[in-house]
UniProtKB/TrEMBL annotation:
It comes from the Bacteria. InterPro entries: YtkA-like_dom. Pfam families: YtkA. Keywords: Signal. This is YtkA-like domain-containing protein. Residues 1-24 form the signal peptide. It comes from Paenibacillus sabinae T27. Residues 44-125 form the YtkA-like domain.
Amino acid sequence: MPGFFLKKIGYALMIAAMVASVLAGCASKGNNQAVMDMSKMSMDPIKVELTWSPAGASANQEIIFKAEVTQGGDVVDDADEVLFEIVNDNDSSKKLELKGELDEEGKYTAAGTLEEAGMYHVTSHVTARTQHSMPTKPLTVKP
C-alpha cells in the first residue's frame, strides 16, 4: 500500500514539474516572437492609394505601380509586405506579380511591363501593422 501512495506522489510531482517548466518557458526573456511591438499599433485602418504611371499604358511599355500606405493620416514606412498583382481579365493565368519597395517619397513602387493589350485588374496586397488591405482597380493597356 505505501508503494501505491508513493507512485501517486511521484506522478503529481512529475506533472507539477512539467507545468512549472512550461510556465517558465513562456515567461523567459529569450527570443519570443509572440511579443509584438505595440508602439506603432493603432485602431485606425491602414489606407492604400493605388496608382500607376503612365495612366494610359501601352503594351510593352514599362509601368510604375505605386501604393501610398497611410494610417491615421501618417505615412506607413514599415509595411511587412507590398505585392502588386496584375491579372489579365480574359486569361487569369496571364498575371504579373511584383514586389513593392519603399521609395524616397514614402511610397511603395514596382516596375513591370505587360506584353499584351487588354483589360487587367491591379491589386495591391499590403500587410502592415497587423492589418491587410487589397484594393483593386481596372487597368486598360492599349496596343
